[in-house]
Amino acid sequence: MGGKEQDNVNHYQALNVAPDATVDEIRAAYRAAILHLHPDKAGAGSGPKEWQNTAVFSRVQQAWEVLRDAQTRTAYNQVLVAKALQKEIAVSAEVDLDDMASHTDARGAFRVFTYPCRCGSSFAVSEAELSEDADSVVVQCQNCSLAIRVLYTVHPGDGL
Hints:
Elements: H1 3-7, H2 11-15, H3 23-37, H4 48-67, H5 70-88, E1 93-96, E2 101-104, E3 111-116, E4 122-126, E5 136-140, E6 147-151
Parallel strand pairs: 1-6
Antiparallel strand pairs: 2-3, 3-4, 5-6
């Protein structure tokens, strides 16, 4: 796996375990993957296969860091559930973040982006809801059941 395919792999898939796997099962899968993928063990070089293994190795490392701890695993599971729910919501339109109006919240702490809904209300998403790990977010109208997908790009260090 490489590039965009790798970005769509969740931590459970990276370790090839079920979401209800025990910590011992996760540890065993992690150790097996590390032995198979470690650049020193796999004969790392400068070819494309070696770079791909290095990326997969990093993904396995990241998965282990999250899933080995009960608290971070619970938080991660909540993110997975939220993402699954977003995919299930019927989206009426896709809107680029640049096409939304930008406002600062009442305390001046962060920006809120709004877009008018055909019901007369609006869709709203805060700057805090825009993750660097994603390129879109589904937002439901504040008044009716319509939802839009907001497309955006976050550049680390540059803000929005």
